[in-house]
Amino acid sequence: MEVSSSTSEVIVEEWSGSSSTKLSRTATITASPSLSIQRSGSRFHHVWRRILEAFVPEGFPSSVTPDYVPFQVWDLLQGLSTYIRTMLSTQALLSAIGVGEKSATVIGATFQWFLRDLTGMLGGILFTFYQGSNLDSNAKMWRLVADLMNDLGMLMDLLSPLFPSAFVFVVCLGSISRSFTGVASGATRAALTQHFALQSNAADISAKEGSQETVATMVGMALGMLLARITMGHPLAIWFSFLSLTMFHMYANYMAVRCLALNSLNPERCSILLQHFMRTGQVLSPEQVSKMEHILPVWASSWSSKKTELIHVRVSLGVRVSSLNHLELRDLLHFAGSHYKKAKYLLMERKGNICIVMHKDSTATDVLQSFLHANAMANLIDKHRILHSESQTWMDKHYEEFIQKLKVSGWKTERLLSPTIVWKANWICGSSDEKID
Q: Which pLDDT value is given to residue 43?
């Protein structure tokens, strides 16, 4: 509110907006000599703004990253296709359970549904146990995997009427697939919400996403019921519609993930950044790296057109000391007393790979430094160089410069997004003995 005064009149202006940079004047009140109110803008404009505020974060677009809008557009489109297909798969599942048939019993249908849900819950727990700590570091890949598993789950529901003798097995397999989706999608979405939030507004972004998904769900349900009604009794039409929507769903998911320009450091992004810096002395931006990194799993990278060398796959972080043989342990003891006296990690070359042993007192900064050091060493293996001395010399000369340039380019250098390091070690270097516990 702004107030200007003079001896003859007082003017009060009313402004509206959730962000100081997006304010608009809505009314002007004048007292000269009688009170008058002049409203600005149409009533439709005000109503539209209030509706929009229910679906976009406060302060939009300055309160979110530039990749928020394209990601949300593709994400809503893939969600819409999912809700439409859900009607087809649910219709087939209910038919297989026996809904509408006189021979079907309530207790039998209830038991089958309960067994389906139970296997899904157990699958979710197992998936969290094996992959929970890996979801942050590969948010893009797991986002795709989550939706692929959801597609598989719906496919199992659609197939269930075709295999009545194996009905329980088929629907339980589909439930397990969807349980993976729930865990992976929820975890990666949390990571992406933190990425989008520029003004510590992750809760607001999450709430507005809920509103967007509610609208997409209602539209998808309506279209799904219409499609189910049209295709009822026509198996070929059902399968054609389902497969077509599935292909669109996978494409929309790929495009949504491709839009993301994450500024957190995971193993692959670290490798891409370090290799480019070692060649040119320059640091790539998050947008540039997003076009170079692989979204599909490593085993599928041979199908990709990208030719980025995956040096990070040759680095093993958090190696268990007791898994090394006597010769490797002797080398490790030597390195602890020579090259890494002041470091909170040890590096060792093992069959063309670089093994990292982390100190039990190591911090997140030490983990990032050790991984970058290991990548620098892996980059020298094929060049027949003296690995430890040359890589240490490079780290002494360029590491701090590299980290500073990463910060200037918008990268988060507080930590490396990697699976939890379970195995660590402790070493004591003295004049007469060297010891590793």
A: 62
Cα–Cα nearest to 316, from 280, 345, 285: 345
Q: Distance between CA atoms of 219 and 359, rounded to whole angstroms? A: 54
Q: Residue 251: what residue type?
A: Y
Interval 8-36 mean pLDDT? 68
CA-to-CA distance for 359 and 424, rounded, in angstroms? 6
Taking a C-beta distance cutoff of 8 angstroms, is the pair 346, 336 a contact? yes
Instruction: Check residue 384 and give its pLDDT.
Output: 58
The model's pLDDT over 188-200, given as tens digits with 9 standing for 90+, comes to: 888 899 889 988 8
- Residue ranges, CATH 1.20.1250.20, the chain: 67-259
Place of tokens 């990749």: 67
- Are 319 and 422 in contact by the 8 Å Cβ rule? The answer is no
Contacts of 198 (CB under 8 A, 6+ apart): 62, 63, 64, 65
Tell me how far apart the terminal alpha carbons of the chain are, to the nearest angstrom: 67
What is the Cα–Cα distance from 350 to 328, expressed in whole angstroms?
Answer: 8
CA separation for the pair 127, 183 (Å, rounded): 8
Percent of the chain with pLDDT over 70: 81
Tokens of 336: 């602890």
CA-CA-CA-CA dihedral for 204, 209, 214, 216, to nearest 10 = 160
Strands 35-39 vs 315-317: parallel, antiparallel or unpaired: unpaired
Question: What is the model's pLDDT at position 36?
Answer: 67
Instruction: Please give the Cα distance from 245 to 87 (Å, whole number).
Output: 12
Amino acid code (one letter) for 248: F
What is the Cα Rg of the chain in Å? 29
State the CATH architecture for 67-259: Up-down Bundle (1.20)
Residue 3 has pLDDT above 60, yes or no: no
Q: Is 62 in contact with 21 (CB distance < 8 Å)? A: yes
Cα separation, 402 vs 396, in Å, equals 11
Give the CA distances from residue 116 to residues 88, 95, 128, 181, in Å, rounded to whole numbers and listed in that order. 18, 15, 19, 15
Paired sense of beta strands 35-39 and 24-31, if any: antiparallel
Nearest CA among 361, 364, 333 for reference residue 136: 364
Q: pLDDT tens for residues 381-417?
A: 766 566 788 888 899 999 999 999 999 999 999 999 9
Tally the residues of the chain: 437
Helix axes 68-97, 235-259, angle to 10 degrees: 150
Kindly report the CA angle at 337 between 334 and 338, in degrees rounded to 5? 85
